[in-house]
Design brief:
453 residues; alpha/beta; Aminopeptidase; Glucose Oxidase, domain 1; 8-stranded mixed β-sheet; 25% strand
Length: 453
């Protein structure tokens, strides 16, 4: 009977919605597209502040500026929530080449976040190429000891959802150094996490397992990976050299930046909308995740500008340290728990500022069914992909307290061209796509606030 009721509810469509909802949502999109501010805010964040790796001066500048920005919008409350974050620094630009006899061929690399440095003069050793951890283990210590392991499994280009392709390859980056070190390797090189063929190495977080030697590890560009693989087949005795000067410093004090519009009827119920303020250090962090942060602030601005006085408290959160520790997301969930706050829902934008496609929902079947009744209202704006799915890394810890999670889903085809690279810059973001994303999030927040979950 329960299943039948849910099915009938879905077929019936937005029974609780009113004709005025369509007009309100249209006004939200009109405001974002005609008078939106997110793009110019993103310009400042990207160009005037730039890279914002946790613990860096850039991250602190972003905290100060974003707090000031939300205060200037006249939100009811703006505050900082302290978190202690990892502080890893890249140091001098990396150098890498492979050597065949006296010939050296340079290849682009980038140290992975959290990696140790090489010796000051670098490390040079023979190379073993693998595509899986199982393949590496089958080689055994005898064939791996003293060598550099080259992890060269590409993201699956046949996956229509590139995040699925990413998920199928990223453990090489996260755990490759640990797996290689267990067998006595002196370094690890990982194919960049992208389907693009280019010379841009993609950094990202890695971690060391307990009780294994800490060996240096870096990402190599896809063009570089293909050239190295081809050369290895022709010259199995070639050697690979790389040098990097990165290090981990003591944890640093930083902050989540929070702004809110207080609810008029149920202020104790909170709806969060947010993104992560930190970024990797190679580019400007425009798509990842300056776009999501500015969209979140834009949601509140739109509501305030249109005179929408929400029933529930709407809170924009700029999370710190998503990239290499998730301290902001965990710290925010702890803050909410300690203050006995009730978070009804949380919406996260961390998939780039591309054309909106929908929302993934994490919640009970009943909660998902209620949200899916709004598809008819959102479909005219291209939001067709609404249903079960991921929420987001930073809002994930809120699920333990029963919060319904919504992950904003833009088109994914171009995201991993820019992800964690030096070309993730403001110029890569389209202003109209960014505005459509902000409007989509604002429309969803309006419906959650109006009808609850």
């Amino acid at each position: 009977m329960k299943t039948l009721i849910l099915l009938l509810t879905l077929i019936a469509g937005p029974l609780s919605a009113q004709p005025s909802d369509s007009l309100r949502i249209r006004s939200i999109y009109d405001e974002a597209l005609a008078r939106g501010q997110a793009y110019e805010w993103l310009r400042y964040l990207s160009k005037q502040i730039g890279p914002r790796l946790s613990g860096s001066a850039g991250a602190q500048k972003a905290v100060d500026w974003t707090k000031q920005l939300m205060e200037q919008q006249g939100f009811d409350r703006v505050f900082l929530q302290e978190v202690m974050v990892p502080h890893w620094v890249r140091g001098a630009k990396e150098e890498a080449y492979f050597r065949i006899g006296k010939q050296k061929t340079a290849v682009p690399i980038a140290a992975l976040g959290g990696s140790v440095a090489t010796a000051p003069k670098g490390v040079e050793a023979p190379v073993v190429e693998v595509k899986t951890f199982q393949e590496l283990r089958e080689l055994g210590a005898e064939k791996v000891k003293g060598k550099i392991v080259f992890f060269n499994r590409p993201m699956d280009p046949t996956r229509l959802n590139t995040f699925e392709a990413y998920g199928g390859a990223v453990e090489q980056r996260a755990n490759g150094a640990t797996e290689a070190a267990r067998l006595g390797a002196v370094g690890a090189i990982v194919r960049s996490m992208t389907t693009a063929q280019d010379d841009n190495p993609h950094t990202g977080a890695m971690r060391y397992g307990t009780g294994v030697p800490l060996i240096p590890t870096a990402a190599i560009s896809t063009n570089g990976a293909d050239l190295l693989s081809k050369s290895l087949k022709e010259n199995p005795n070639l050697t690979f050299f790389f040098r990097q000067d990165c290090e981990s410093l003591p944890d640093a004090r930083s902050y989540n930046v929070v702004g809110e519009i207080r609810g008029s009827e149920k202020p104790e119920e909170i709806i969060v909308v947010g993104g992560h303020l930190d970024s990797w250090d190679l580019g400007e962090g425009a798509h990842d995740d300056g776009a999501g942060c500015m969209q979140a602030v834009e949601v509140l601005r739109i509501m305030k500008t249109l005179g929408i006085r929400p029933k529930r408290t709407i809170r924009a959160v700029m999370f710190m340290n998503e990239e290499n520790g998730l301290r902001g997301g965990i710290g925010y969930a702890d803050y909410a728990r300690k203050n006995n706050e009730k978070h009804l829902a949380a919406v996260e934008s961390d998939n780039g500022g591309f054309t909106p496609r929908g929302f993934g929902i994490v919640g009970t079947p009943e909660q998902r069914a209620k949200a899916m009744r709004w598809k008819e209202l959102l479909a005219p704006y291209g939001l067709h992909d609404i249903g079960p799915g991921g929420g987001g890394a930073d809002i994930g810890p809120l699920a333990q307290s029963g919060t319904v999670l919504f992950g904003f889903k833009p088109d994914s085809q171009r995201y991993f061209d820019y992800h964690h690279t030096g070309i993730d810059r403001f110029e890569a973001v389209n202003p109209r796509e960014l505005a459509l994303g902000a409007a989509s999030m604002a429309a969803l927040v309006y419906l959650i606030d109006t009808y609850g979950l």
